[in-house]
Fold this sequence. Notes:
Alpha-Beta Plaits, 11 helices, 37% helix, binds adenosine-5'-triphosphate, ABC-2 type transport system ATP-binding protein, ATP hydrolysis activity, AAA+_ATPase, transport
Amino acid sequence: MREIIARIESLSHRYHKSWAVKDINWDIPNRGITGLLGSNGAGKSTTMNVLCGALRPTQGNVIIAGINLRKDPQQARREIGFLPQQAPLYIDLSIDEYLRYCAELRLIPPKQINASIEAAKQKCGIAHFSKRLIRNLSGGYRQRVGIAQAIIHRPPLIVLDEPTNGLDPNQILEVRSLIREIAEERAVVFSSHILTEIQTLCKDVVMIEGGQIVFSDTMDAFNNHTGNNTMIVHLEEAPASDQLMQIPGIMQVELLSGNRFRLFTSGERKLAEDIVQASVQHQWRLQEILFEKPSLDEVFAKLSKQQSKFKA
Length: 312
Ligand SMILES: Nc1ncnc2c1ncn2[C@@H]1O[C@H](COP(=O)(O)OP(=O)(O)OP(=O)(O)O)[C@@H](O)[C@H]1O
């Protein structure tokens, strides 16, 4: 059994009349990055806001490091750092001023505040901008400041709500690598509506749709369940479909235009290698292999179908 840092029990939350999330049960492992995957409006922010004590749930409980958030919110919140979707930055403060304010809010003892600010700035690569006003920082650096405030009190669990949203591709890579570094020492929960982002970063994944968890397991198990089982190959000297079917793992072949084939596969891990070998052997002159990635909607449709099969 893996150790957990937090547990969400039978969580349901209603805004006005409609339920945003319904009966969420979720154990968060105490190490590594767990991805919370779901399309817009699926219920990710609601779940994260409840987990971090920013929203009081209609029903259910959150236990963080053994502390019940309802019974002892102050103590439970010490164990958690949160970067909400709208980073809570004061743009007229400098990085130092803002982090000092956050450290005080977090009740860090006065004698330890300077050291905590320095450590958070170093970790997030923002020490050289200490005196700069937050309003004069790029989106990527603002996100780093948001992450710095989340780790300033050194909590064992960090929750980041779509931290790469709105960043340019370079900034996304930088923030991802920072998240990886932060996760070396603690648990991180990270939400996104982008499947490849979760696949790149996370060890565990929870998928939420329509306010309910539709999948919860390791990333490897997720990939096995939903794995891309089609690929496109371009062979300059196109063979007959039957010849391709002789490669173990190819279940069906669809001929496309321009000497391209769509191959439906059994998910065999070394299939690409076998195709390259067969191409060399038969001189098919392989030009390209492209793995077709399923969209979030397709993954959801597949998971829903599998669930209804289990229920039937
Ligand atoms: N303050 C609110 N008042 C009323 N309804 C809300 C409120 N916040 C969220 N909702 C609704 O609750 C549902 C879940 O929203 P939530 O923000 O948790 O989803 P999300 O997965 O984080 O989506 P996004 O990625 O778009 O933020 C949606 O139907 C949303 O419209």
